[in-house]
Specification:
The protein has 382 residues and is of the alpha/beta class. The protein has helices spanning 8-31, 52-56, 90-96, 99-102, 115-123, 134-142, 187-190, 192-198, 213-221, 232-241, 267-272, 274-293, 295-305, 311-321, 340-353, 362-365; strands at 63-66, 72-79, 105-110, 129-133, 147-152, 159-164, 179-182, 207-210, 227-231, 246-250, 261-266. A hairpin with a 5-residue loop joins strand 1 and strand 2.
């Protein structure tokens, strides 16, 4: 299909594709192992943006460059939670559609190696912004990291139990007698005790199998386990892509509240350049909302970052992730806004099941001060 590069959007996409070519091979290798790790993606000192003004303010440094299409742009490094895929697509959509450029930003979006790693990268200022799970962010803050969660996308707990074919969980008692794969160290593993307690079951009666994330879906498809605990938006599309029917039972069905993935930033950046945080958050939220309104176009943009990705899988991942956007506590609020009551509930789980004796206070973890106002930022309601 021919493309008119005189169109500013197509020109940006062409430039973006050139910039991403050097990473495509690595992404293709990484994506072949579901939920696996890929080398060290920490930005090097050579690639990190530099700015004497930013450094003197204690803010992760930025580089101001002149755009061929307009005024000066500030270069920003942003790290995802994982590989490029449907649920985190809003950031690359915001870049491709020029939403960041409209805010005076040129954002380099990099894949990640898990929320905990992304939180650490933001904490040590190797990346200015990150996309990470609120549970992992809270743990990192409890360990002394000076970062904050400034906008929520998955505002409801994305964890659940995924089953295949005729195996269905419609009530907690259906968990009994199943072999359930549970990746060790994961957020679902740390929330497991709270989930079982909320389901009013005896943990000793529920059989779990420790399983490597990369082997989880194949094990489920091959019948080596009968159910799989994890992000439904990641596992269910993979099962369906294999030609199987999937079923889901969410952790929220047993009362496990968790604020999941959102935008994080160092507190020095908040104090030193709050206007930049405002602009980044607003453009990012526009990217997610645009992707929801135009999923086919968003999936096409994803393929330029990760050519091996299948469009059908990306679309299904996006669709399921939208179920986590609007829990009852955020009804009518702009995307990004999170409820203090949800943070309090999650921090209690962190204290009782997450091994954190003295969890941080909600005000030390999150803020809503950077959430843009207006009906155009309110997502479709359930």
């Amino acid at each position: 299909m021919s493309r008119d590069l005189g169109d500013p959007y197509q020109r940006r996409r062409s430039q973006m594709l050139v910039l991403k070519r050097s990473r495509i091979l690595a992404l293709a290798i990484c994506a072949s192992v579901a939920l696996g790790g890929c080398g060290n993606n920490t930005p090097s000192s050579e690639s990190a943006p530099t700015s004497a003004a930013g450094a003197s303010a204690g803010v992760p440094s930025t580089n101001v460059q002149t755009s061929n299409e307009g005024p000066e742009l500030i270069d920003v490094e942003m790290r995802l939670d994982w590989l490029f895929h449907g649920p985190n697509i809003g950031f690359i959509v915001a870049e491709a559609k020029g939403f960041y450029q409209d805010q005076g930003l040129r954002v380099n979006v990099e894949s990640g190696q898990g929320s905990g790693t992304t939180a650490q990268l933001v904490a040590n200022k190797s990346a200015m912004f990150g996309f990470a799970d609120g549970y992992a962010v809270s743990q990192t803050i409890a360990q002394g990291a000076d970062i904050k969660y400034v906008a929520g996308i998955y505002r409801s707990n994305p964890n659940g139990i995924t089953t295949v074919g005729e195996t269905m969980i419609t009530e907690p008692m259906d968990l009994l007698g199943l072999q359930i794969g549970l990746p060790p160290g994961s957020s679902q593993a740390q929330q497991w005790s709270a989930f079982i307690e909320g389901c009013e079951l005896d943990e000793a009666e529920v059989e779990t199998v420790s399983i490597d994330p990369g082997a989880a879906v194949p094990a489920l498809l091959e019948g080596r386990i009968e159910a799989l605990a994890g992000y439904v938006q990641g596992y269910a599309p993979a099962v369906e892509n294999a030609g199987k029917q999937s079923h889901s039972f969410w952790f929220t069905d047993c009362g496990v509240t968790a604020v999941s993935n959102g935008i994080i930033v160092h507190n020095d950046t908040i104090e030193g350049d709050p206007d930049l945080v405002d602009r980044f958050v607003a453009a990012s939220i526009r990217g997610f909302l645009y992707a929801r309104e135009n999923p086919d176009e968003a999936a096409e943009i994803l393929l330029e970052y990760s050519p091996e990705f299948q469009t059908e899988v990306a679309l299904r991942e996006m669709e399921i992730s939208w179920d986590t956007w609007v829990p009852p506590s955020t009804s009518g609020q702009p995307l990004g806004w999170t409820a203090e009551e949800d943070w309090i509930a999650m921090l209690e789980i962190l204290a009782t099941s997450g091994g954190v004796e003295n969890p941080p206070a909600p005000d030390d973890v999150f803020t809503n001060e950077f959430i843009p106002e207006g009906d155009e930022f309110v997502p479709p309601q359930p």
